[in-house]
Amino acid sequence: MTNRSHVRSISLPSRSYPAALKIEQELNKIRSGEKSSGSMTQTICSGLSELERLHKSMDELLSLPSAQQALSHHVNERQVDELLDESVRLLDVCGSTRDVISQLKENAQDLQSALRRRKGDVCVQSSISSYICSRKKMNKDGKKLLAAIKKMDNKDRACPILDQDHQLPAVVGVLGEVNAITISIFQALLLLLTTPVPKRKPTRWSLVSKFVHKGIVKDENIKELESVDFILSAISSGRTDLEKMQIAHEELETLQAGLEGLENGLDCMFRRLIKTRASLLNIVYH
Questions:
Q1: DSSP sequence for the chain
Q2: pTM higher than 0.85 for the full model?
Q3: Among residues 119, 124, 208, 224, which one has the fewest Cβ atoms lying within 10 Å of its Cβ?
């Protein structure tokens, strides 16, 4: 255990500033939240890509001797312990969310296969029921993960990034800011995944067809999950036909593409978070 009375105040030397400033620029870019012209899923996929680049820059900062010295000399600081705790919590949320999305994607693929085979209305209805059950499970699991991430978001993160006048090293402030923006993007993703599952009630196909042809189902404010729910509700209320199958196939393909993008983005983030945690542990405890 380090004796704090023998630890001198450490600040990042000027040569480390470019790395911290690069992170601050990337943070500001994400915070600006330029709205994507695509769907909500595409917007979050873009956010995950930017987040992965941000964490890569943070890993570059952690490779600097000055940053490593700052963390190693503050091994007993409360803020450092909290960062280590957050790193494992973020890993858990990221991995669990990826698994939830992967399961729904698999169920969506099974449903599409059933619609393609068209072995009868009973088979199609059974596949639809299985998909809806999967949606409900994702909604339930997503709410639990959302509650966990919200607890992390309630922590105080008042430490400025480049303020060298405070005793807490600037590098700890950088890590805290990066974690905060990571939590924010994960929250947006989980809110998307917890889109309420509508109650099964008949929907007139003429209404669905009218909406599709007018592009209402493709509106950027309507989530892909809602579009599929809307159309499956209409299919459940009557017999299947070619038009219904075509529209259902298109919406399921769009949903699967979005889910795959989210799954890939989370997979990249999971590997990056593992690397960051390993770096932190090596710096602090070696």
A1: ---GGGPPP----GGGHHHHHHHHHHHHHHHHTPPPSS-HHHHHHHHHHHHHHHHHHHHHHHTSHHHHHHHHTTTT-HHHHHHHHHHHHHHHHHHHHHHHHHHHHHHHHHHHHHHHH---HHHHHHHHHHHHHHHHHHHHHHHHHHHHHHHHHTS-----TT-TTSSS-HHHHHHHHHHHHHHHHHHHHHHHHTPPPPP-----HHHHHHHHHHTSTT-TTS-HHHHHHHHHHHHHTS---HHHHHHHHHHHHHHHHHHHHHHHHHHHHHHHHHHHHHHHHHHHH-
A2: no
A3: 119
